[in-house]
Amino acid sequence: MTDSSTEFTASVRIEVFLRAHTSPAVVESLSDLVARARRLEDALDAAVHVETWTAVRPALEELSDSGSSITGTVEAFQSWADREGYDLEPAFDWRETSSVIGNRAAEVRVPTACVAVYTDGDLQCVAPCSDGDCSYTVMDCLAKLEEGVIEPEPFDTRKQDDGSRRPSDSDEPDEPAENAERYARAEELE
Fold first, then answer.
1. Using CA atoms, how far apart are residues 168 and 175, in angstroms rounded to an integer?
2. Does a structural domain hold residue 6?
3. Span 66-103, pLDDT tens digits
4. What angle do CA 8, 29, 122 make, to 5 degrees?
5. Quick check: pTM over 0.85?
6. Rounded CA gap, 146 and 91, in Å?
């Protein structure tokens, strides 16, 4: 990764992905997330693009005339994570599913919300991600962007000298835990 103190001197693009089949219980939270990202357009002169996505079976997506957009995006995110030493699981999930006729197919499940940050066309960050011990949330990523940090070093910036984690930089002290609980409840409703 590049230096986390890098300021917005390059062309910055922020992509926000929202899962299309999401519980109505989280729509307001997702609207707030999008509004927060949109404020970065003016504050940082960044381009913000919002789109919906859904779980997909790569084999079916390959049959589409439009190609494998979700699978290709997730593969690019996975390449970034592998290169930078992060993990996209459990937010992203690759699994085999079976059909009623007994066939098995790979499926890529996507998180309720995801943010990808690019500078000059190069992927700098994907949230949510993890280093195996700590998770870096979409809200953490947006907080860093609001501070003027293009790409985060999520785990270096959140550890104190003794190695323990600092509280989240988000507005609410327990926001990541509350979001996880809210998303878990929403999943039960889907």
1. 8
2. no
3. 766 899 999 999 999 999 999 999 999 988 877 666 67
4. 30
5. no
6. 23
